[in-house]
Amino acid sequence: MRVLSLSTGWTIALDTLAWLILQPTISWLAMRLPLSAFAPDAWLYRARLWERGGALYQTLFRVRHWKERLPSGGAWMGGFRMKRIASSEPEYLERWLLETCRAELAHWLQILVAPLFFLWNPPIAGAFILLYALMANMPCIVVQRYNRPRLQRLMRKAQARR
Question: What's the CA gap between 120 and 22, in Å, rounded?
Fold first, then answer.
């Protein structure tokens, strides 16, 4: 339901400004949440049987071939770097695991705010903005959901070695 009617130029300007504010703000807020707020076995983050331990994402999307190309938002915000696993220490792997939850939450929230754009955009523009939000964030969510079961397996191996 459109509550604000603006010219095309002002609508585009507001859309651009809103995304430039919303996306980094959501990421910044997620970075401020304590690690204790995240649990890989919580409903949002837990692996589903149909994901087959992350293998579904490799089968459908060939995630291993492109995941390295995605930017690491945590690093941009002064947080945890998630480009490559730098250690096999259980504490490091546990931190990485929790950071996958943080990243996934931030990307889901960036999708969830997209319907706000329907307040000042015509329905077709709102639909394109929602499509943008999905296309910009779903690859990042897929990577987190692909990595999390792999990290959990690495953690079990590291803990078994101890």
Answer: 16
